[in-house]
């Protein structure tokens, strides 16, 4: 994988949400009180608190039956708008997709990745825009045509109208998503030829052997922490930088004491497969000379270390084959014979080499002089028993359902205070920024990207001043600094308010690469992100719809 799954710290996220949401509510309350006092005097203060109390009163008295009835009406309205025509586009895509996605027989893994990527992207690019248009257009159109009067004249709360719309579109989108997901799963299973479903797998311990194994699986990895030793054997922060602009991997030098040390926590016998410890490696080679190209890779070895018992057990030399899955199937019982005259010693990986805390430490050493081996934390992992492909695929579909629900909530919320075209444009902008610009804003605000402010950049451009020269002291410099500071504060506010849709796309990447979607690194942050916008969307929708003039066209 080219990404590093990091467990999500949900406690810190909860604290951050409470801080941002609480601060926003306090600021909104203060603004409302000030406006109320200016417009209505002391009576305005009472009106503000009565309005706040009205939300909680309606929440307590909501009726699930009324909400469901409004949801059914929402679904019927969407069906009358020919929403199911989206299946025609979906069917056309799948009828001709096989013509353009045919891969090569020598890289079946890339072929199956292209199939999965196409299916998941086709589903998300069809479902999410359709639901965005429906959510943004429905309520303003009802207000324009005055059909909403048949609802508001009945004993129905405004909050129930909002919840009915959200629930109705969610149910309809879920049904469409399940249908498309089921068709996509069957298409992948049928489209993948036998060479993709079952491909020969290289076993590093015995290269002459091979076995048939399906590529349509969900691998369940256990990642460890990585540290480095330099060429003298001293601890180092990282390996050697070979000049690659992508700083993802660090390199260890061959035929020296340089090592990459992986420490896997929580390893026990349940992680074994057929009395074997399954490892998978994806190291990258950097050659300072051509070397022996007939071998097909650089030699390296693994050393299992148990510091509690003072054991160091070396594996036999292995060949690192780049751009393939280096499956390392190591027998649970490792036989060690240092000298021909000595007796053979048998070590059990789980009984002897795993320490008392359940940690398995593995050192990686490059054996060839003048060659370097690059690695990152996910480049070596313990591969536990695989799960069916359907498990990971279902989680990827969930990764489409969550942003769909979030888009529906945002669309309905925005449509409560603006008209349809403006609601569509606003929601679309928020989604695009959340998908494409969230990381860019994080880099600017965190200080990782050294860039001047917008006003300072224009000033330097007009005065032909380079970026290394300091701004002249004076009023102009103070004004530029103040304005740029305000822009950064506004950018920070947008960064906090706009949801990070990139979290949901990570689930698709897991399945494309053949991995099961991680709960702590992908599913949990996605679920919490979608859930965090439920209450703010309900609050904004309720007060916007309550203050909006429904008689206006």
Automatic annotation (TrEMBL):
Indicate the transmembrane segments per the record.
17-38, 45-63, 83-101, 122-140, 166-188, 396-414, 420-437, 517-543
Give UniProt keywords alphabetically: Membrane, Transmembrane, Transmembrane helix
**What organism is listed for this UniProt entry?**
Gimesia panareensis
Q: Which domain of life is it from?
A: Bacteria
Q: State the name under which the record lists this protein.
A: ABC-2 family transporter protein
């Amino acid at each position: 994988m080219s990404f590093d799954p990091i467990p999500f710290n949900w406690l810190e996220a909860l604290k951050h949400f409470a801080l941002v949401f609480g601060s926003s509510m306090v600021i909104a309350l203060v603004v409302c009180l000030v406006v109320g006092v200016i417009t209505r005097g002391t009576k305005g203060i009472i009106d503000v608190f009565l309005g706040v109390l009205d939300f909680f009163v309606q929440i307590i008295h909501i009726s699930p039956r009324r909400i469901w009835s409004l949801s059914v009406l929402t679904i019927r309205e969407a069906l009358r708008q020919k929403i199911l025509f989206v299946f025609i586009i979906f069917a056309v895509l799948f009828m001709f997709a096989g013509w353009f996605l045919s891969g090569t027989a020598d890289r079946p893994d890339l072929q199956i990745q292209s199939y999965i990527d196409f299916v998941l992207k086709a589903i998300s690019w069809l479902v999410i825009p359709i639901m965005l248009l429906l959510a943004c257009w429905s309520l303003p159109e009802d207000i324009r045509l005055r059909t909403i009067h048949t609802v508001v004249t009945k004993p129905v709360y405004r909050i129930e109208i909002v919840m009915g719309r959200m629930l109705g579109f969610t149910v309809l989108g879920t049904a469409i998503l399940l249908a498309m997901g089921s068709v996509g799963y069957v298409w992948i299973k049928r489209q993948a030829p036998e060479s993709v479903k079952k491909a020969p797998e290289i076993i590093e311990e015995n290269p002459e052997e091979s076995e048939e194994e399906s590529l349509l699986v969900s691998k369940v990895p256990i990642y460890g922490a990585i540290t480095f030793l330099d060429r003298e054997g001293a601890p180092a922060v990282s390996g050697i930088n070979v000049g690659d602009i992508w700083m993802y991997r660090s390199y260890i030098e061959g035929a020296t004491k340089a090592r990459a040390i992986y420490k896997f926590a929580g390893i026990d016998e349940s992680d074994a497969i057929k009395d074997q410890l399954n490892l998978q490696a994806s190291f990258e080679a950097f050659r300072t000379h051509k070397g022996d190209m007939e071998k097909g890779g650089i030699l390296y070895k693994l050393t299992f270390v148990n510091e509690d018992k003072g054991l160091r057990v070396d594996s036999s030399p292995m060949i690192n084959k780049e751009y393939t899955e280096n499956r390392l199937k190591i027998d649970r019982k490792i036989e060690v014979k240092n000298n021909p005259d000595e007796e053979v010693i048998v070590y059990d990986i789980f009984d002897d080499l795993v320490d008392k805390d359940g940690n398995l430490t593995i050192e990686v050493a490059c054996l060839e002089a003048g060659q370097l081996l690059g690695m990152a934390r996910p480049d070596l992992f313990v591969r536990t028993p695989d799960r069916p492909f359907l498990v990971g695929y279902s989680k990827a579909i969930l990764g489409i359902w969550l942003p769909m629900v979030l888009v529906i909530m945002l669309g309905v919320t925005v449509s409560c205070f603006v008209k349809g075209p403006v609601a569509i444009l606003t929601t679309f902008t928020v989604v695009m920024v959340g998908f494409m610009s969230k990381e860019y804003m994080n880099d600017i605000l965190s200080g990782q990207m050294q860039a001047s402010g917008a006003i300072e950049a224009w000033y330097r451009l007009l005065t032909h001043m380079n970026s290394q020269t300091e701004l002249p002291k004076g009023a102009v410099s103070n004004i530029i600094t103040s304005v740029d500071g305000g822009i950064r504060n506004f950018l920070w506010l947008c960064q906090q308010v706009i949801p990070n849709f990139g979290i949901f796309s990570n689930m698709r990447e897991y399945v494309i690469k053949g991995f099961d979607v991680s709960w702590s690194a992908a599913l949990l942050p996605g679920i919490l992100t979608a859930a965090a916008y439920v209450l703010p969307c309900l609050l904004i929708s309720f007060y916007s719809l309550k203050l909006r003039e429904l008689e206006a066209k």
